[in-house]
Amino acid sequence: MLWREIKFLVAKEIRLELKQKYVINGILLYLVSTIYVTYLAFENTITGETWNSLFWIILLFVAVNGISKSFVQESPARHLYYYTIVSPQAVVLSKILYNLLLMAILSVLSFGFFLLLMGNQVVNIPLFLLTLVFGSLGLSSVLTMVAAIASRASHNFSLMAILSFPIILPLLAVLMKVSHTAISSLDWSGLSSLLVILLTINVVVVALAYLLFPYLWKD
Length: 219
Prior knowledge:
The structure is a single chain. It is built from 8 helices and no strands. By secondary structure, the protein is mainly alpha-helical. The longest helix has about 30 residues, at about 90-120.
């Protein structure tokens, strides 16, 4: 039952996004223009560490721009309608899954544009792609939950920034450490603890969203 509701809501999110193409087009334009400006600023002078830092900074702000609208594009009347037909757990999990899909696409596109414009600094591409998966899940789950809280505070997105960055910064620090290893070495040894930390953060955030969102939903 829960999985059926989640599939229905994810399909609804995709249809809604396809109807409002200007939203995703705006995110893509922001992504491409930011990477291009970065390319103009660091042409032929970028190092591996700088490449890694710029990649995650740009991806972070793209994630904030893309996920902040999760609960804004739906009216209070539609929220009330969802309240009567689906469970709050299905709502929050569907939002996380949809935003995970969106972040995965944006992450791959960011990586592709970085390779095209900034050159390939990554030695261990499988490890870097795995880091993108963990990063996409972490950013989507954290920002989805914070967007839900901000939507209950009259869509105060300064509140979203205040609440999300203390949670995202530890996640971002671990992601940058793992991706730095992917840039500098083919060796996977010593990464098990960092990957476990990433997995734990993602599982904890999703579990908290699952447990706490129903109380927020009833407000």
